[in-house]
Amino acid sequence: MTTPPATTPPVQTVPPVQAAPATVPRLATDTLTAWYGVTSGVRDVTLACRENTVTALIGPSGCGKSTLLRSLNRMHELVPGARVTGRVLLDGYDIYDRGINPVEVRRRIGMVFQRPTPFPTMTIAENVAAGLAVGPPITRADRDVVVEHALRRAALWDEVKDRLHESPMNLSGGQQQRLCVARTVAPEPEVILLDEPTASLDPAGTAHIEELVQELKREFTVVIVTHNLQQAGRVSDVTAFFYLGELIEVGPTSRMFTAPGKAQTEAYITGRFG
Amino acid sequence: MRGRLARRLVGSTMTGLTYGAAALAILPLAVIFIMLLVKGAGSLDLNFFIKSAVPVGEPGGGFAFAIVGTLIIVGLACVIGVPIGVATGIFLAEFGGGRFGFAVRFVADVLNGVPSIVIGIFAWTWLVKPMGHFSALAGGFALGMILVPIVARTTEEMVRLVPNSLREAALALGYPRWRTSLQVVVRTATAGIVTGCLVAVARVAGETAPLLFTALGNQFFSTRLNGPMAALPLQIYAYALGPYDEWHRQAWAGALVLIVLVLALSLIARAVVRAKHQHA
User: Fold this and answer.
1) Mutation test of the interface with chain B: which of A71, A75, A103, choosing the one with the most B Cβ atoms within 10 A?
2) C-beta atoms of A134 and B165 within 8 A
3) Which of A76, B24, B42, B149 has its CA 20 to 30 A from that of B176?
């Protein structure tokens, strides 16, 4: 493991040429195609996500970015008729290999969804600990420690520490989403996938989550799908642009937003379509 | 201007019609309840709830044996019908996409439509006849059979109401499919499932026909599961057909108690739903 790259440069600065050193990618796809029956949602994607970086997947609606994200932790195949060809490599091992249990994959690659999904019948603390229930046995004391740590990492501890045993449904949307982040980080996954995590939040909630993403990348490899270009610019190190199910271009975020290589990318980023 | 007047006229007529239809729909319930109150409330006293039947002409007889009998038989029906029904419903909602699920759903719907007297004859043929005597057990079984398809279908509906996003969230945390179903999806649907069970129980509590062939009824206080047992609907039936005015009065009172019992169950069901919504 090498030193993590510096924090995201602001969009305006001129980037150094290929700043980050080459490392073995934590998560990579190799000619990945995700199918819905006979039609493909996203085609022939080869992409690498290095450790301690945030990769943003951007593109207009229906471009396949969410489908790709859901292929990365084998959630895609839950849709009837859906399947995947190509490979997804986690630490060099194909998660679609025969004999790999998708349940195990999902414990190592966590996911936060577009809308907050706290479990309504569980308390706040139980929600955070939910992922631990399917992991190795853990004592009650240890679990409490993990819950607090996870809530601190999700920047939610101070707001909920006095009502850990209350229902999560009384929290605001933004708090619920941070609770979902806490729930995702508690079992210590290696990669965290965020599927438009701020789509249903107000600006304050959005700002919270974006700060959080910066914190998360210290410990995890983060992949975020967003339809908000400014957000991609603010939070990500690498940006991948998708259009009509294909990966058009991928590169350091600062370069993608200042000097994109492809005309389609430039057209999208400058707001001419999508 | 004429157009506007006509529109308003049609609008208010239609609104009036819907109000009328709503009133008509609740009229029978109101009439039944008022009639039961008028005819039955006078015979309700403490004795009615703590004493059993006495010979005609003797004062102070009650329906205690029938009330207890109904509670026992309905309790038996729950023990038999609720677990099977709930399990079937969960299966249908979570794994019932295939051909087998379709078949189970179809059979449940058919069973739902079978007249209760047919269920009674079925229970008589397979339980009462081989055992050689009527019994509360057979009565509970017959009512349980009526419960199963209702509970199964309402459970399925309630489990289906749980948003798919919760299912996905659990799966994404690394929950295996079955743990997702039980610990997240079904747990979220619990309040709805309990409500469905209570409504189903309220329905079978008033069933008479299946009990005629199974529990038969009993003139005396009995808690023996293996023998004939009294039940409210049976006792109402017997007393209403009897020749004595005193019996008729008691039948009215029994009917009132039965209706109140069913009403109470429905109210509890509503309270459960409300508690859930406050929680959620």
Assistant:
1) A103
2) no
3) B149
Strand pairing report for A93-94 and A82-90: antiparallel
A112-136 tens-digit pLDDT: 999 999 999 999 999 999 999 988 8
Using a CB-CB cut-off of 8 Å, the residues of chain B touching A184 are 172-173
For chain A, the domains span: 27-269
Rounded-to-integer distance, Cα A147 and Cα A152, Å: 9
ipTM of the prediction greater than 0.90, yes or no: no
The predicted-structure confidence for A7-61, as pLDDT tens digits, reads as follows: 444 444 444 444 444 557 899 999 999 999 888 889 999 999 999 999 999 999 8
**Measured between CB atoms, does B278 come within 8 Å of chain A?**
no
Rounded Cα distance between B240 and B49, Å, is 18
User: What is the rounded end-to-end Cα distance, in angstroms, of chain A?
Assistant: 38
Dump pLDDT digits (tens) for B160-211: 999 999 999 999 999 999 999 999 999 999 989 999 999 999 999 999 999 9
Query: In this complex, which of A107, A117, A183 lies closest to B165 when CB atoms are compared?
Result: A117
Residue recorded with tokens 């991948």: A240
Residues in chain B: 280
